């Protein structure tokens, strides 16, 4: 009884300490600056050195304005109306470093913030805000040779249309006309599209910087729209109703042959990788198991894990990369990599510290994955 009492008392002390800490949060630093993703000349939204975000919306006829942050718009910050017709408010606490989607709810209607740029996520164009990260240098725009991101339209008999993909070619691709390159097929997440990795993820800048530093072997990245079969946004089942077969046909039977025919690629499994974030990880997992002779390198970013038992042809697997944010399920990722290594696979795990299911996790994951690819 005494032990139980002491444990209860100790828990109560801890709880009261948390309550006090919550009741008396640190003062919000008034060093707010416009977000780097703002429209030209727009002062709001703003971010401060602690990671707080502040919003200011002109809506003189509105009664209520709320900011919903995060993929899918979870949570919210209610803004306060002033006599001049502006609604202003600051997040209750600091946000994770990196990129975040958000939208406004004005008198019950969903709108984007006119002060900032838009990004495709949550099956719609959302507003975007960037919380400066302590390690943002690896995806910063620098004075280094840059590759190109180009749109391609490729024929798809299975969907009876032309489909769009974006292709990153590394610096020097146009000049080194005899050089052939490995290819990474890099997939976006649920509700996003083929623009996500270069816009939100800054994949091209990550590659440019790492190539300039000699950290990676130059390779091509292909970014394709993954939601091939039609699923109505908000329909019952959501991701559970997604079928891999239509997308698998587009990727393996249509896009890869198009890329190999129109770009200077090393067209073999040892020089072909597939990776994806979230739903893109789900797609990667399914297709690499269904088509073991197509890709030699596998990467799941916040997109599940592999088990040794489900990989039937081990001889073709050069690398399995698994990652997540520390606020997701990092222990599962670490354990899966340990189990794979024990079974004889080259497996690597990575956990992004202080982030959740968000692009800072995936930017860092690409930074960790890229140097491991095509190092036969």
UniProtKB/TrEMBL annotation:
GO terms for molecular function: hydrolase activity. Pfam families: Esterase. InterPro entries: AB_hydrolase_fold, Esterase-like, Ig-like_fold, Ig_E-set, Mycobacterial_A85_antigen. Keywords: Hydrolase, Signal. Residues 1-21 form the signal peptide. SUPFAM superfamilies: alpha/beta-Hydrolases, E set domains. This is Alpha/beta hydrolase-fold protein. It comes from Pontibacter saemangeumensis.
């Amino acid at each position: 009884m005494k032990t139980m009492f002491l444990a209860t008392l100790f828990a109560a002390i801890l709880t009261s300490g948390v309550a006090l800490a919550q009741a008396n949060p640190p003062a919000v630093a008034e060093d707010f600056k416009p977000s780097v993703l703002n429209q030209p000349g727009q002062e709001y939204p703003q971010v401060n050195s602690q990671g707080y975000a502040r919003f200011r919306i002109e809506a003189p006829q509105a009664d209520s304005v709320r900011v919903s942050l995060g993929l899918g718009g979870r949570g919210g910050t209610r803004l306060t109306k002033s006599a001049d017709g502006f609604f202003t408010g600051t997040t209750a606490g600091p946000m994770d470093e990196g990129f975040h989607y958000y939208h406004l709810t004005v008198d019950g209607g969903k709108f984007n913030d006119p002060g900032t740029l838009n990004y495709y996520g949550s099956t719609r164009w959302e507003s975007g805000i960037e919380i400066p990260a302590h390690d943002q240098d690896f995806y910063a725009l620098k004075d280094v040779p840059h590759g190109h991101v180009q749109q391609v339209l490729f024929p798809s008999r299975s969907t009876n249309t032309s489909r769009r993909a974006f292709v990153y070619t590394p610096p020097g691709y146009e000049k080194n006309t005899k050089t052939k390159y490995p290819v990474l097929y890099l997939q976006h997440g649920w509700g996003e599209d083929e623009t996500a990795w270069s816009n939100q993820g800054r994949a091209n800048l990550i590659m440019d910087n790492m190539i300039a530093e000699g950290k990676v072997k130059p390779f091509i990245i292909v970014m394709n729209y993954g939601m091939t079969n039609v699923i109505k946004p908000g329909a019952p089942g959501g991701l559970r109703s997604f079928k891999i077969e239509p997308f698998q046909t587009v990727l393996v039977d249509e896009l890869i042959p198009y890329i190999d025919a129109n770009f200077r690629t090393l067209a073999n499994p040892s020089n072909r990788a597939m990776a994806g974030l979230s739903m893109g990880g789900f797609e990667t997992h399914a297709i690499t198991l269904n088509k073991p002779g197509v890709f030699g390198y596998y990467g799941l970013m916040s997109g599940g894990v592999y088990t040794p038992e489900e990989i039937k042809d081990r001889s073709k697997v050069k690398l399995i990369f698994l990652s997540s944010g520390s606020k997701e399920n990092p222990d599962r990722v670490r354990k899966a990599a340990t189990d794979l290594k024990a079974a004889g696979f080259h497996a690597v795990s990575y956990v992004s510290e202080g982030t959740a299911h968000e692009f800072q996790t995936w930017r860092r994951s690409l930074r960790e994955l890229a140097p491991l690819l095509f190092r036969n």
